[in-house]
Write a structure and sequence with these properties.
There is one protein chain. This protein is mainly β. Strands 2, 4, 5, 6, 9, 10 and 11 form a seven-stranded mixed β-sheet that branches. Strands 1-3-8-7 form a four-stranded antiparallel β-sheet, with no helix packed on it. The radius of gyration is 13 Å and the shape is globular.
Amino acid sequence: QVQVVESGGKVVQPGGSLKLSCVVSGADIRTIVMGWYRRFPGREREYVARIFSNGITHYTETVRGRFTISRDNTINTVFLQMDTLTPDDTAVYYCATFFTTGTRWGQGTQVTVSS
């Protein structure tokens, strides 16, 4: 059974950095597109970034230049390095695994940017 587990969320001050991790078990992610999404309070989940199996990355405009998505296929893990955080980045962050049979989501990890 495939499981997707995010970690690394916590409270951080504005201007700070944080690195999220997403570990996938029960499947090999080497050929899988992986992504990060986030949900602001009271709003729908929205796209943040994705990384293809060949390492090509894509970001939504609001995080481009501040966030970096990466992957380590040897440990079935995708990362999201977040720099220059602002209170507007406060959200629950979700990892998405785009299998051909459907998308699997993790339970989310809370990131709070506050002084």
